[in-house]
Structures are given as C-alpha cells and as structure tokens.
Amino acid sequence: MISKKDIPCFENPLGKAMGIITKNYWGALSKKLEHIGIDRHFTTMAAIAQAKEKCTQQYLSDLLAVDKVHMVRVLDYLVSHGMITRTVNPLDRREHIIKHTAKAKKIMPVIQNGIAEMNKTAFKGFNTKEKELFNGFVETIILNLKNLPVNEVDIKIKK
Amino acid sequence: MISKKDIPCFENPLGKAMGIITKNYWGALSKKLEHIGIDRHFTTMAAIAQAKEKCTQQYLSDLLAVDKVHMVRVLDYLVSHGMITRTVNPLDRREHIIKHTAKAKKIMPVIQNGIAEMNKTAFKGFNTKEKELFNGFVETIILNLKNLPVNEVDIKIKK
DNA sequence: AAAACTAGTTAACATTGTTTACTGTTAATA
DNA sequence: TATTAACAGTAAACAATGTTAACTAGTTTT
What we know:
Two copies of one chain form a homodimer.
Chain A lengths: L13 H20 L8 H9 L6 H8 L3 H13 L3 E5 L7 E5 L1 H21 L5 H18 L14
Antiparallel strand pairs in A: 1-2
The structure holds a DNA duplex.
C-alpha cells in the first residue's frame, strides 16, 4: 500500500495541512456565518476591522497578498452584502477609503470568535513554547521561499 | 502601521506560508517545465510514478484528496499532453488503470528533482531534529482539524 | 432478476487568479 | 508650464479549480 510519505511532494506537509484547514474549518465557519450575511472573505473583514491607518484597496491588497483586481471583486461582494462602504479620499481622489458599516461592526465579534476558535482547535495540545517554536519554523520557511526568482530554479534532465 | 500579526487569522501562519510556496516555488517549477511538456499537476504525476498497487482514478482521488470529477479533468490534461494512458481494467471493467507513457517516464526525474529542490529550499537551515519536530507539529494540527464536523463549530453573537 | 453500489463521465455553474487595457488623479521633471 | 510618469481603481476576457446533479456502464448483494 502506497502511503503519502512515498510521494516526495508530501514530505513537505504544508500543502496537506492547508487543504484540511480550508475544507474543515473555514468551511464550517462559512456555513455558520452565511445566515448572518456573508459566507466568505472573513480575513478581509478582519483586516478592515483592525486597520490602524487609512484603509485603501491597495493597502488591503498588499496586506493580504491578494491581487488588486481580485480585491475589487472581494470588496464588490462586501458592498453588495452591506458590510462596507467605499468613499473617495478627498485628499487624494485616486484612493477609495474602505469602512465597515454598522451591520458589519455587529457581526465582527462572530468572525473574530470564529477565527480564534480555529486557532484554538488547530493548536490543541500545544504549549506556549511549542506554539512559538512552530511559528518560528513557519517564519523561516516563509523567508526561505520569499522572493525566490523564477530563474534560480534550474533543473537539468538526466539522459 | 498595522502588521499581519494584528489580524487574528494570521496568528496561524499556515495560510500565509502556503500562498508563498504556491506562488514562488510551484510557479518557478511550472515555468521551467512548460517547455518539457506540462506546466502543472506535478503531484499527480509523482503519485502515478510511485503507485505500488493498481492505479485507478478513484485511488488517485483518495490519495491526493481531490474530487473525482476534478481528477477526470486533470487526467484529461495529462492524456492530451501525452503523459498517461487510460486502460479499462479487464478484471473490473468499471475501472480505468492509469499508466505513464515513455515520454512521462523521461521527464519524471525533472519533476522529482524539482519537488526535492522545493523541499530543500523550504527547509534550508533546519537540522534533522527540527525538520522532524516541524513535521510532528503539522501532523498534530492535521489531526486536530481532521473530520471536524460542521456542527461542532458553534459561535454565538454577543448582544 | 431486481436493487444497490461503484467507477467514471458530462454539463452547468461559482469562485479565484491573471492579463490587458482603460479612466481618472497626482507627482515628477524638463 | 507642459509633458510625462506613476498610482488607485475598474472592466472585460479568460483559465484553472471546486462543486453539484444527472448520467452510463459494470459489479455485487439480496
């Protein structure tokens, strides 16, 4: 019987973990929250809630590492669901300032709790030191892979 | 200045790491390999190469945690690029046996090297013990989140 | 023989990501 | 000042992925 350990891409288990997180936890949260008004884009909602400076679309794109074209659609979704307003910045009329509506402010605790619950469940059994260790590992992996130029990957075919 | 640490969903950094892996490393590998014949579905290729029992579509779906409908399209892609053959199993004519073509066998070392390179880059600076520790953490997180019933997530709105 | 199950396919649709081209606004500079 | 470059956001088109439902064909169960 083949196991996933025999497939080299699964030696790095990040992909597997991510799939399970997405399917199980975000999925569960989505179903819970669709009755309240939205069923996705929770991280964008959280980012808007906690933005400490002027919250433009470009700012959100950079923060969440999402293409600005896609961000337009995310924000269209949130506008159409009554969660945010877009206002032109009078100081720089190119910019749109994103703000939560009253409705959004009301449901933010639910989203925050949901996200907190996800983290609590994911790290069940970890003590503080282990959690820090894990986060450090991930930070290192991110640095190892960040800004990897396409041309640096150079693999030759064996004859 | 808001940092990603202020957004609770980023306290669990798996999502962030996964995005970087996908964009940088798989992206780089894709560009390298498109000249050889394919630019995606490398994990499926690796799984087929190392399958130790009869390699049906259902088997691959289960192993790679991919929907069987999507698997049809992945295999259509690989057939159309001359990488695999589909043969009806004479012992059970419902099943299709997936096998690599000669062309695929030729490029598999490139894919294997690419994947190995990804792991090497990602874990640069890790010693064996740290790598094992990290993998153990990920296994625990996977177990923590696996089969999480949708109904178990129960969050109440604060008034 | 009928019913239930399994493997795979097809079609339709939604979401996400990417590219290109575009409008309008602001900043840089010659 | 006039021109050019840069920036924020939008629109349209398209590809890739994920999901559901309905379907064919073959196998197993009863």
